[in-house]
Design goal:
Layout lengths: L25 E5 L4 H12 L4 E3 L11 H11 L3 E4 L7 H6 L1 H21 L4 E5 L28 H21 L2 E7 L1 E3 L12 H14 L4 E5 L5 E2 L1 E3 H14 L6 E3 L5 E2 H12 L4 E5 L8 E2 L4 H5 L8 H14 L8
Parallel strand pairs: 1-2, 1-3, 3-4, 4-5, 5-10, 6-9, 7-12, 8-13
Antiparallel strand pairs: 8-11
Bound molecules: NADP nicotinamide-adenine-dinucleotide phosphate (NAP).
Length: about 325
């Protein structure tokens, strides 16, 4: 049996120890095979970080607290970026509420507490725009978190994510642990989950239009009324923001990460239709739930930190579709 000895346990003082980030910092990216994690590893490598560590789910099950502690104890990363979570759209949240709350709470508890125990200098946690209150004013400002009732279709996931943010804030307050939380908007890009039932709206649309084009279908059905407004950020931009904020940001306030621009689902479907080259009609299945009527991030705090998105929605969807075409044999379905 392995004995876990955290000989360099943090002193119990609450003065923030700001991380010193260098190209040799040992950075553990949890969830590196996912949409966000893979983009973060690519971004870190491009920026010259030389000491990146990763583990597949088979090598390290993040639900296993003992295994996570042992891993931290042996590896002692300087920085942890947590891109591991159970993620999915409205349908998946409705079908698997227990897994959404339990898995996310467990993974983040193991990762945050273990990183602190093992003496990591910095922790980057990812919340989400979908955990703001359903009827919060738009655009969403950081201070609206916990100001009203959640969207019922994903409250399990939201409660877990809010607990993760609060845990980062609590560890900052009590232990001086430099844990920060970012609030990404809807993300898309290479390695997305393209499953038609369990995925987010944009990869599902790409796949639907692609299949309809291949089958010469007369129309494509889109869930809901088409009127809700959503914001989308290309995942390489998200990764760039995460690494930028890892390097430059240290505070308890959550940081929205988005473009600050939204489109209706109908407009989005029309862009995807054009990029994929489908020539049939668009039909809206109004029996399916719409979710939150509008979700747009106020990104003024992020701009103040000196970062803004670079990829337009059309460019990003084209890049995501190119990846889909080149990787159809290995697209993820859950
Ligand atoms: N996608 C979005 O639009 C979006 C928007 C806002 C926030 N976020 C946040 O960004 C983060 C990453 O999301 P994503 O879209 O990149 O999700 P994703 O593509 O599903 O990736 C999640 C990663 O977590 C890993 N993982 C899950 N459970 C694990 C376990 N028990 N042990 C080890 N690894 C485990 C998965 O491993 P496998 O590869 O083995 O499955 C996968 O690599 C999440 O915190 C999410 O809440 C995402």
């Amino acid at each position: 049996m392995t004995i876990i000895n955290f000989s360099n346990n943090r002193a119990m003082d609450n003065k923030i120890k700001k991380a010193v980030v260098t190209p040799n910092s040992k950075i553990y990216v949890a969830g590196h095979r996912g949409l966000v994690g893979s983009a973060i590893v690519k971004n870190l490598e491009a920026k010259g970080y030389k000491n990146i560590i990763t583990r597949t789910r088979q090598q390290l099950d993040l639900m296993d607290s003992v295994a996570v502690m042992e891993f931290y104890c042996h590896q002692k990363p300087d920085i942890v970026i947590d891109a591991a979570a159970k993620v999915g759209g409205i349908h998946a949240n409705n079908i698997y509420p227990a897994e959404f709350i339990y898995d996310n709470l467990t993974i983040q508890n193991n990762l945050i507490h273990g990183a602190y125990q093992a003496g990591a200098q910095k922790f980057v946690f990812l919340g989400s725009s979908c955990i703001y209150p359903k009827m919060a004013p738009q655009p969403l400002k950081e201070e609206y978190l916990l100001s009203g009732s959640l969207e019922p279709t994903n409250e399990w996931y939201a409660i877990a994510k809010i607990a993760g943010i609060k845990m980062c804030q609590a560890y900052r307050k009590q232990y001086g642990f430099d844990a920060i939380s970012l609030m990404p908007t809807n993300l898309y890009g290479p390695r997305d989950n393209f499953d038609l039932q369990n995925s987010h709206v944009l990869p599902a649309l790409i796949r639907k239009f692609h299949q309809a084009k291949k089958n010469n279908d007369a129309d494509v059905t889109v869930w809901g009324t088409g009127s809700p407004k959503r914001e989308f950020l290309y995942v390489d931009d998200m990764a760039d923001a995460a690494v930028y904020l890892m390097e430059n940001y240290s505070d308890e306030q959550i940081v929205n990460v988005g473009t600050g621009i939204d489109v209706t689902i109908k407009q989005l479907a029309e862009i995807v239709k054009k990029i994929v080259g489908f020539e049939g009609d668009l039909v809206f299945d109004t029996s399916k739930p719409d979710g939150t009527p509008r979700k747009l991030m106020d990104v003024s705090f992020l701009s103040l930190q000196g970062w803004q998105a670079k990829t337009s929605l059309e460019q990003g969807i084209q890049l995501a579709y190119n990846w889909f075409l080149e990787n159809q044999g290995q697209i993820r379905e859950k």
